[in-house]
Write a structure and sequence with these properties.
The complex is a heterodimer. Chain A is α/β, with parallel strands linked by helices. Chain A has one domain: Rossmann fold (3-Layer(aba) Sandwich), CATH 3.40.50. Helices cover 43% and strands 15% of the residues of chain A. In chain A, helix 1 packs across helix 8 and helix 3 runs parallel beside helix 4. The longest helix of chain A has 29 residues. Chain A starts with 7 loop residues before the first strand and ends in a 6-residue tail after the last strand. Chain B is an all-alpha fold. Chain B has a single domain, classed as Non-ribosomal Peptide Synthetase Peptidyl Carrier Protein, Chain A. The radius of gyration of chain B is 11 Å and the shape is globular. The two termini of chain B are 13 Å apart. The chains are: A alpha/beta, B mainly alpha. The interface between A and B is small, with 13 and 8 residues.
Chain lengths: 247, 76
């Protein structure tokens, strides 16, 4: 028996490193359907080829910043599968800028994707889960949302908001037996770090007890656990997956 | 059964009118039973009956019997 047998899961940010690893881990654990939400058509197809159980992964293009598209996504999944067991909010964008040089449009975009879009998807999905009287919502936050980090004031603020939202939503939805948790990854080896200089990257790796970055698979493994019934009594928690990072 | 008849059946059931005539001027303000919990049950019943998903704004605007009819007309 697998950890996610026959579960219907929505994963946003599926075109990215963490999101794609989560989708692959879910189907490996027997998920019945993984709706892999991508911002740009074709990004899921790029990694889906050759993936085990790929016929259980269904790419879905939607703009997380658009409420109508979010509603259509939830409604379409509900109509097709009759339920939504798991929602993973992994879509996110990051601009690293020093105070005094923070671009206002980047502030708006980061909050729009990382926070506002997440809230809308959470509340539409929760309405389906409330009828089922069960469900698991997992938000991808970040260690910088807990500890802060130079050059990431706005990004960390968005992730701090995700953490607070997770805690409040878990309390509000507990009576419907909907679990809401967050993963707080440390530095993770994805495309998002490509623009960080080697010097800064090395200094950040030096702060990790395990002396390496997390792999997207490390993050996905923790998400699988929270999505599964093994975590059936866990809600409102922020699980750090950071290899012992000291910030 | 037309949309109004289907809607009336939901209203009758959710507000436990036991077949009594519906007061079509009923609102959240003048209907004691219409609390926030019942509101979501009402929304769910409408969505299931008409196979629709209401916008969040529609849920907020569903403040009276007549508003409910207008919202259903928008979707169906």
């Amino acid at each position: 028996m697998n950890m996610l047998d026959s579960k219907v899961c929505i994963v946003t940010g599926a075109g990215g490193g963490i999101g794609s690893s989560i989708c692959q881990a879910f189907v490996s654990e027997g998920a019945g359907a993984v709706i892999a939400v991508e911002h740009q058509r074709g990004t899921v197809d790029q990694w889906k080829v050759g993936c085990r159980n790929m016929n259980h992964i269904f790419p879905y293009t939607a703009n997380i910043e658009n409420e109508q598209e979010i509603k259509d996504l939830v409604h379409n999944v509900k109509k097709k599968y009759g339920k939504i067991d798991v929602l993973v909010n992994a879509a996110g964008i990051e601009y690293n800028e020093q105070i005094g040089m923070i671009n206002h449009s980047h502030i708006e975009r980061m909050f729009s994707v990382n926070v506002f879009g997440l809230i809308e998807l959470l509340q539409y999905t929760a309405r389906v889960m409330m009828r089922q009287k069960e469900g698991s919502i997992i938000n991808i936050a970040s260690v910088v949302g807990i500890y802060g980090n130079p050059g990431q004031s706005v990004y960390s603020a968005t992730k701090g908001a995700v953490i607070s939202l997770t805690k409040s939503a878990s309390k509000e939805l507990a009576h419907s037996k909907i679990r809401v948790n967050a993963i707080a990854p440390g530095l993770t080896d994805t495309k998002m770090i490509q623009n960080i200089s080697k010097e800064i990257l090395d200094s950040r790796i030096n702060k990790i007890g395990f002396e390496r970055m997390a792999s997207p698979e490390d993050i996905a493994d923790a998400v699988v656990f929270l999505a599964s019934d093994k975590a059936k009594f866990i809600t409102g928690q922020i699980l750090g997956v950071d290899g012992g990072t000291i910030m | 059964m037309n949309n109004k008849e289907r809607y009336d059946r939901i209203v009758n059931e959710i507000f436990e009118l036991n077949g009594m005539p519906i007061n079509e001027s009923m609102t959240r303000g003048n209907t004691e039973k219409w609390n926030s919990l019942l509101h979501l049950t009402f929304v769910t019943a409408i969505e299931d009956e008409f196979e629709i998903m209401l916008d969040t704004q529609d849920i907020l605007n569903l403040t009276s019997y007549s508003a409910g009819l207008e919202i259903i007309d928008k979707y169906c």
